[in-house]
Amino acid sequence: MDFKIKRIYSLVFVKDTLNKKILLGYKKRGFGKSKWIGLGGKLHPDESIIECAIREVKEEANIELTSVDKIGYLEYIFEDETNVMAVHVFSADSYSGEISETEEIRPEWFEYGSVPFDKMWPDDRYWFHLMLSNKRFKGHFLYEANLENIKIYDLSEVDNISDI
Ligand SMILES: Nc1ncnc2c1[nH]c(=O)n2[C@H]1C[C@H](O)[C@@H](COP(=O)(O)OP(=O)(O)OP(=O)(O)O)O1
What we know:
The chain is 13% helix and 43% strand. The chain is mainly β.
């Protein structure tokens, strides 16, 4: 039987709402290497998902988020793999400190209209517009084993995401 183990992640999009810019990170190593992604990573034992979001942004871009807003929940399933990635998506528009490059991530601001989808995970094209317009959403994406093609997906807007 094909048992799947759920691994929990945070994924944080820092926004400059005044100038309509979004902070992405160029992943320099590990899973998703050479892609532009939101900041985030695996939930550690004994921390909440909000603590995970704040810690990962500090580790990856050297800034301290003042608050985060949960806006989405996505599950990624990869053919031939036992793990399911359960990703809690947050947006944030206030922080302290200076954004700077780290060992793992090179952060960079992008205008909302110039997001580099051709160098991002393919599913991002489906839900990025919802995230940028502060809509709440949930979805599932089943990827082929090559991690490039989406086999099936579902995606919906929701009124309330806090309980998921
Ligand atoms: N398909 C897709 N779209 C958008 N974002 C993501 C994906 N897949 C992903 O993995 N991600 C995001 C979710 C997470 O925020 C990161 C991956 O986290 P990862 O770098 O593996 O976790 P860390 O805990 O930072 O890893 P290490 O510190 O152990 O290297 O990408």
